[in-house]
Amino acid sequence: MGKLLLEDISIAYGGERVLQDCSFSVEKGEFVSIVGPSGCGKSSLLSVIAGTLAAESGSVWLDGKRVCGISTDVTLMPQDDLLLPWLTVLDNVCLYGKIHGGLQKLRADAMKNLQTFGLSGYETRYPQELSGGMRQRAAFLRSALCPSDLLLLDEPFASLDVITREEMQDWLLHLRQRLGRTVLLVTHDIDEAMYLSDRVLVLAGRPAKIRAEFIVKEETRNRSWLMEQTQQKRDIYAALKGELE
Ligand SMILES: Nc1ncnc2c1ncn2[C@@H]1O[C@H](COP(=O)(O)OP(=O)(O)O)[C@@H](O)[C@H]1O
Ligand SMILES: [Mg+2]
Known about the structure:
- It is a single chain.
- By secondary structure, the protein is of the alpha/beta class.
- The chain has helices at about 40-50, 90-95, 95-100, 105-115, 130-145, 160-180, 190-195, 225-230, 230-240, and strands at about 5-15, 15-25, 30-35, 55-60, 65, 75, 150-155, 180-185, 200-205, 210-215.
- The strands form two sheets. The protein has a six-stranded mixed β-sheet with strand order 6-7-8-3-9-10, sandwiched between helices.
- A hairpin with a 4-residue loop joins β9 (about 200-205) and β10.
- The chain starts with a strand and ends in a 5-residue tail after the last helix.
- Adenosine-5'-diphosphate binds near residues 40 and 41.
């Protein structure tokens, strides 16, 4: 069994089904993206995996164990960076240690990683003094310092301008190897999904279902290659629009 397995997950709000029979697995160390239009249920799906939302039916398995309730083996980085404005960057980044203990070790780990996350010299600043990209990196560092090895990223770059977004994608691609985590990213950006992932799943329709799956080759993961991938992009787009069944 893989790191994460979803079996026939359906999600409904007030009797209205938004997602139906969603099944897929993610292997340990794999980077999988789910691409889908706004409102198709991506955030809801991540909430079900993290155990903060009950599915209408189906089951989620993590390391072979069924997820029931909030799971501490999963780190969810929400769409909004959720940095607390009254805490410094370092205190924000070490929030997990404040809540769960082990603060000293976490602080030491955070200090070691500030450089990699482009935050060195900013540890005593407050979130509102940072640029959008830096805030996002601080939120990333906070997630990366949580001990779980499944990272769920909910449109982490959606609020950034195009240039900053591309810089952050490059940085995440580079960080991927260092982190060695299993990552499930949701996005509405086809380029982002193709650039960062081993595999792209397309979620679309109402209720939304997994419409298609695309393997992205590792050796071709670079921007000039991405510009040339018109056919695969077209296929992903067609699947999103429901033209591929
Ligand atoms: N708490 C909620 N109560 C009722 N409807 C919700 C709730 N959360 C999300 N929805 C609805 O479920 C659908 C999927 O939402 P969401 O998972 O946020 O989609 P996405 O992240 O893909 O934009 C949307 O139509 C949204 O309006
Ligand atoms: Mg969302």
